[in-house]
Each structure stands twice: as structure tokens, then as C-alpha cells.
Amino acid sequence: MAKAKLYIVYYSLYGHVETMAREVQRGANAVQGVEATLWQVPETISNVILQKMKAPAKADDVPEIRPEQLIDADGFLFGFPSRFGVMAAQFKAFFDATSELWERQALAGKPAGIFWSTGFHGGGQELTALTAVTQLAHHGMIFVPLGYTFGSGMFEMNEVKGGSSYGAGTYAADGSREPTELELQQAFHQGKYVAEIAKKLKNKPLSA
């Protein structure tokens, strides 16, 4: 039986989403019969500006993805930082380039989850995910929320923790804060959870 292919597609400027993405991949690859692959969307900011922003170099072990490559996947996890309550422009530009796939509804019926990073509590921990669902809906993808499947970790009140029922999340604050152990555990759980669903749908596809 062929493995279910899960594509973890992300954009990360300062590395917070990349850290989350790698943990999501670990969780997904923990599911037997699933092959999870990391991909980056293209950067739209010039190198000169990136240097002025003191952005670190992009991961050299994660290839850039082209829109047409999405067809090869059985499911997705999309990750991005928040910008004013919506996904970063780089990721929106990538989705804007998927019009040919939309015309053919080539991604319809494929499961997809979302994870993210925001600066602080009011930075869009839920709104960023909620506004991103529109991209999935127009493509006919099946949004897979995390719900409260992470158990007691969803109710943690003794420490700052990103994420919600929409998916895993982290806080970057002024950029110095890194994803916590609990946030990484939630990312791992989300990767495993979505991978299990992608595997089930691949082995038992929706009726035409």
C-alpha cells in the first residue's frame, strides 16, 4: 500500500514557524504509512531588505515549492506568521498563484491543517487561522481543526501558550521568544493527528 504524502508547507521570517514546522513533521512521520515532507514558499522580500530586517538565512535543507507540486500531496499542513490577523503576504502570494489548481479543483477533498506564529495575545492566535480557512474553502480542501484533541494541554493556564482549537501556535513576542516545550508538543500532536486523517482518506477516498 502506497504511503500517504503529507506536505508541510510554511513561510518563516525569523525561524519561529520553521521550528514549529519541523516538530509538525516529526509528529506526522511518527504515523506508520505516512511520508511527511517540508516545503517553503518563495520569499518576496529582497535580500537587501531582509538584511536590514536582520532576518536569518532560510533553511537550506528545505526546498521551495511551486503551486503545481501541491497536486502530488494527499494532505497538507500550512504554517505562517500572522500579519495584522491574517497570513503573511508571502504565503498569500503563494495561494494567489494557485488559480490554475482552483479552476480544476485539483485540491478538492484533500485534508489540510493550519499552524502559526503571532507576536502577542492580540496578534491573531485565532483570527489568523480563521481568515486562512477561506483559502482552503475555495479550493474545496477539508479543513482539519485540532479541536481539543491535545487534551489537558489545551487548558494550560500556568504558562503562556499559543494555539487554539484551530491548530498549533506560538508567540514570538519581540522575536526573542522561542516556541516552548508545550507548544512544540502541541505541534507534534497536530502533525500526527492530521497525518492519521490523511492516511485514512487516502485508503478510503471520498466517493466521486
From TrEMBL:
Encoding gene (name): LOC111284655
Entry's family note: Belongs to the WrbA family.
Gene Ontology molecular function, alphabetical: FMN binding; NAD(P)H dehydrogenase (quinone) activity
Lineage: superkingdom: Eukaryota
Cofactor names: FMN
Name of the protein described by the UniProt record: NAD(P)H dehydrogenase (quinone)
Pfam families: FMN_red (PF03358)
PANTHER family recorded: FLAVODOXIN-RELATED PROTEIN WRBA-RELATED, NAD(P)H DEHYDROGENASE (QUINONE) FQR1-LIKE 3-RELATED
Segment forming the signal sequence: none
Species assigned in the record: Durio zibethinus
UniProt cross-references to InterPro entries, sorted A to Z: Flavodoxin/NO_synth, Flavoprotein-like_sf, Flavoprotein_WrbA-like, FMN_Rdtase-like_dom
Gene Ontology CC annotations of this record: membrane
Residue span(s) of domain Flavodoxin-like: 6-194
Record EC number: 1.6.5.2
Catalysed reaction equations from the record: a quinone + NADPH + H(+) = a quinol + NADP(+); a quinone + NADH + H(+) = a quinol + NAD(+)
